Amino acid sequence: MEKTLILTAYAYWEIAFIYAFTVYFDRPDLATLFPTPVISPQILEDAVVNDAHGLLGDLMRAFLSNAMNRKKPLLPENSDRLLFSYIGSKLQVDDFDLGYNPLANHGSFEGLTPELKVSEARMNSQPKPNTISLSIA
């Protein structure tokens, strides 16, 4: 029997947010940012629905490397520890809306449900307040 995952409207909003974020920041004038994998909304949705670990993990590591302002990108072998620590520090200052650290229950990013992976990726992609200013002419 094949596993079917039905996404919530909120999950689709998070997918749209992640896609918009990657498209907006895929610019040559932002060369200091670590690049994200090339995706489309359909590819991202398929990765969530089919629980494809590779793409969501790659996105999370790129977002977290940028959020932590690292000189080198995160490697898969040390990303869970750093993600756990990063989420913990964000929870202490109420920067994440989950209210708990899901890695405490699941042990690793790969152990999370697909919807939690999307939530984590979206939260790690959000810029800190007052760090990016956009001007509309």
TrEMBL record:
Give me the segments passing through the membrane: 6-25
What protein does this entry describe?
Answer: Uncharacterized protein
Alphabetic keyword roster = Membrane, Transmembrane, Transmembrane helix
Q: Which organism is the protein's source? A: Absidia glauca
- What gene codes for this chain? ABSGL_01731.1 scaffold 2091
